[in-house]
Amino acid sequence: MDDPAVYYSNTGGEKQDATAVSVRSTTELFASDSQKKMNTRVVYGSLAALVIALIAVLIALIVVATSKNSNETSSSGSSAQGSCEDSNSYPWVVPDCSYAKTNLEKAHCVLDSYPLVDGHNDLPYRYRMFANNSVYNVDLTSDLRLTWDPNVSHTDIPKMRKGKLGAQFWADYVPCASNYKDAVRLSLEQLDVIKKYVARYPETFEFVTTAQGILDAFKDGKIGSLIGLEGGHSIDSSLGTLRMFYTLGVRYMTVTHSCNVPWADNWLADTPDYNETLEGPKHDGLTAFGEKVILEMNRLGMLVDLSHVAKATMEDALRISKAPVIYSHSSAFEYCNHYRNVQDSVLRLTKENGGVVMVNFYDKYINCEPNLKDTPTLSQVADHIEYIKNLIGVDYVGIGADYDGVPSVPVGLEDTSTYPALFAELIKRGWNEENLQKLAGRNLIRVFKQAEKVSDEMGHLPPYEDIQPQKVSNPDDLPCRTDF
Ligand SMILES: *[C@@H]1O[C@H](CO)[C@@H](O)[C@H](O)[C@H]1NC(C)=O
Ligand SMILES: *[C@@H]1O[C@H](CO)[C@@H](O)[C@H](O)[C@H]1NC(C)=O
Ligand SMILES: *[C@@H]1O[C@H](CO)[C@@H](O)[C@H](O)[C@H]1NC(C)=O
Questions:
Q1: How many whole angstroms from 419 Cα to the centroid of ligand 2?
Q2: Which CATH number is 99-457's, of 3.10.180.10, 3.40.50.300, 3.20.20.140, 1.10.3720.10?
Q3: What is the pTM of this model?
Q4: Which residue in 183, 381, 403, 452 has a CA-CA distance of 20 to 30 Å to 409?
Q5: Ligand 3 atom nearest 11 alpha carbon
């Protein structure tokens, strides 16, 4: 969510059991006592026949399976997935897209070969804004621009399918106005909304919580759906709350939104607009408790998201984190000097850390000095991607469009149907299939798998039990809080 209007809203089937049914009706047929013995013999006879038939079916199945396996092994081998093979490499071969006549066809070919994983989409918050969080009163297969504000509505199922979206981190976002107040409850409600719409459209979405889950869902033709918690205010300075969000399926947390928390500074701390009265004194990055939050995320296997945080917070988190980090929706600062973007020195640290910067499409973050144009365009987003690739390499860049979270997007990237156009532009600029796969999802999957590995390695550690002393900047909020 990067809609400036909401930064300071302070003021503002049950299956029939066929066997059971048939057994019951057979028994009902044998009503008379005199017939029972004979009937018993008939039953034993049928049972024996049944057992023989079952054995025959079993043998037939084994024969079919064996011949199928040998077929696969003798063919190209590209679809032979041994159960102990490293599934990270299967079947994600770099495709041969040479048949494609146009750049767009080639883009489709690439996106059919590997999931495009978008780091950030604010559809859940639109359900709150426009539908009071009702999922069953909204038809996600219809064009929601006709019923919701068209400026901030970029997502529906036909568009996502047209855009070849492979997996999505849905943002569990609530405004900073809820900081120190009811952020936890509101965040739980947004998490519930995500689970509701994923469950309502099972032919489209599959709820996943692992890197492998993304790949498996894609193989099944589903949009893998993950949850990212957008802002440390949502855990209300509580590691227990953080752990329970993990248990509910949250797989990244953005360390702050556009407000400080008692243990970390947000990006506004880097700007002249920083209001100490409103935000309290700066922490100069992470506090000691903030460092424990990062370590607990590492221990859990929750990705550390550094979009929205201050530069000093990025630097501290990169120093502390044992796992690669992500920027779920941020672009390149040197190309467009907005403080929501990532500065060069931090990009270099991110390369060392092995993380991934998922480029945001928001006008304000992609079109500004020193590259300000009259009209923000798709080409500028491609420039951001190439800027990061050229500075630190193609292994550290991804996509985090921020659809449904921003009031304006560039010409050419109007909604979730337009991702292939961006890939076509990069193909025009000489990108090969392998690098396009990395941008689409390989980099994020690599980071996610590594974070899972770090979590496994930290598995022997007990949960962190540090406590953040209760301290709120606005004394007016104090009466809302229990005194322990
Ligand atoms: C949401 O609920 C409030 C309070 O009942 C109501 O005033 C508002 O019209 C509702 N909005 C929508 C979009 O249903
Ligand atoms: C959508 O954006 C346009 C251009 O900025 C603006 O004129 C219009 O009022 C916006 N619509 C809504 C419903 O906010
Ligand atoms: C800073 O925040 C305080 C408290 O909300 C407000 O009264 C004041 O006007 C703000 N200062 C500036 C310069 O915006």
A1: 23
A2: 3.20.20.140
A3: 0.83
A4: 183
A5: 5
